[in-house]
Amino acid sequence: MKTETIGTAEFQTWTVEEVAEAWAKNDVVLIDVRTPQEYMFEHVEGALLLPMPFFNAHKLPGQTDKPIIFHCGSGVRSEKVARTAIEAGLDKIAHMEGGFAAWKAAQKPYIGTNMATGAPSHVND
């Protein structure tokens, strides 16, 4: 994990492996900031959807129980959203390096779309 201090806040960049391990243990909240269309096509099972255009850092839940980690397709949007959350006063926030593309490249499990039927299906389970 890479960390960056911004004022009194800590901005974290987690690797796919770190996110996958914490996610498997139910230790983090994973928020997908891609579009609804991207999410519907494929997503990390159980990840919450909060598209970047609708993001409002002041409406995020508290972080007393679980840290929040944002992710997107490549890591660009999630980094912007995480930095916006820090500007809004959250003192510890993270994003996943490389985004969903890195998650897939690491062959982590996710929900994809069966192209023959259009139905959701487990991938890399």
Helices and strands in order:
Blueprint: E1 2-6, E2 9-14, H1 16-24, E3 29-32, H2 36-41, E4 48-49, E5 68-71, H3 76-87, E6 92-96, H4 99-105, E7 110-113, E8 120-123
Parallel strand pairs: 2-6, 3-4, 3-5, 5-6
Antiparallel strand pairs: 1-2, 7-8
What's the short version?
The protein has helices spanning 16-24, 36-41, 76-87, 99-105; strands spanning 2-6, 9-14, 29-32, 48-49, 68-71, 92-96, 110-113, 120-123.
Architecture overview:
InterPro entries: GlpE_sulfurtransferase, Rhodanese-like_dom, Rhodanese-like_dom_sf. Pfam families: Rhodanese. Residues 24-112 form the Rhodanese domain. Helices cover 27% and strands 27% of the residues. The chain has four helices and eight strands. It has helices at residues 16-24, 36-41, 76-87, 99-105; strands at 2-6, 9-14, 29-32, 48-49, 68-71, 92-96, 110-113, 120-123. The radius of gyration is 14 Å and the shape is globular. The mean pLDDT is 94.
Task: Give keywords.
single chain; 125 residues; alpha/beta; 6-stranded mixed beta sheet; two-stranded antiparallel sheet; 4 helices; globular; Rhodanese-like domain-containing protein; Rhodanese-like_dom_sf; Rhodanese-like_dom; GlpE_sulfurtransferase
